[in-house]
Amino acid sequence: MADNKLDDLKQTASELGDDLKLKAKEAQLQGEKTINDLKHNAQEAKLEGEKKLNDLKHEAESKHAESKAAFDEKVDDAKAKAEDLKSATQEKLDHLKTEASHKLEEAKLKAAELKHDATVKFDELKEQASAKFDELKKAATDKLNSFKKDDQG
Predict the structure, then answer these.
(1) Backbone CA torsion sign across 88, 92, 97, 101
(2) Are 60 and 67 a contacting pair, CB within 8 Å?
(3) For the purposes of burial, counting CB atoms within 10 Å of the CB of 49, is it exposed (0-12), middle (13-18) or buried (19 or more)?
(4) What's the helix, strand, coil split of the chain in %, to 5?
């Protein structure tokens, strides 16, 4: 019965460990998905910027002075958007790293707690088994002595 309780505790600890590993992998995949989404958005913004640049180039041929000012403004806007997107991507990545780190620390603490609980329970079961063994040993000794007295008497 003590082995069953210990096995149950080990099984529970193993299941919790597996759950925590899965949650960490899930957080990692979510982070990678977010990064991929942000990269895709950056490529779209870059493509959009390239399209606008091409349009402005054709207009510049007919209205050079007027179009050049508009072109410079669009380029600056595209650079600002790209920089904003880069900054947002880095912030999101940093946030995800921090979150993953916190989850890992929580998992470590939970694993340590479960290990401690299992150790305490195992020690309690050892004490109970030892006490029960001592009782059985005493009962057997008493019975043996009783048989010896009966034989002598």
Answers:
(1) positive
(2) yes
(3) middle
(4) 100, 0, 0
56-87 pLDDT, tens digit per residue, is: 777 767 777 676 777 888 889 989 999 999 99
Residue with tokens 């048989």: 147
What is the DSSP-derived secondary structure letter of residue 1? -
Query: Is the pTM for the entire model greater than 0.85?
Result: no
Residue 75's nearest CA partner among 56, 101, 102 is 56
End-to-end Cα, the chain, rounded Å: 41
Phi/psi of residue 63, each to 5°? -130, 70
Buried b (16+ CB within 10 A) or exposed e, 5-39: eeeebeeebeeeeeebeeeeeebeeebeeeeeebe
Q: What is the mean pLDDT of the chain?
A: 87
| 69-95 b/e (C-beta count within 10 Å ≥ 16 → b) | eebeeeeeebeeeeeebeeebeeeeee
Picking from 107, 104, 105, 100, the residue whose alpha carbon sits closest to that of residue 16 is 107
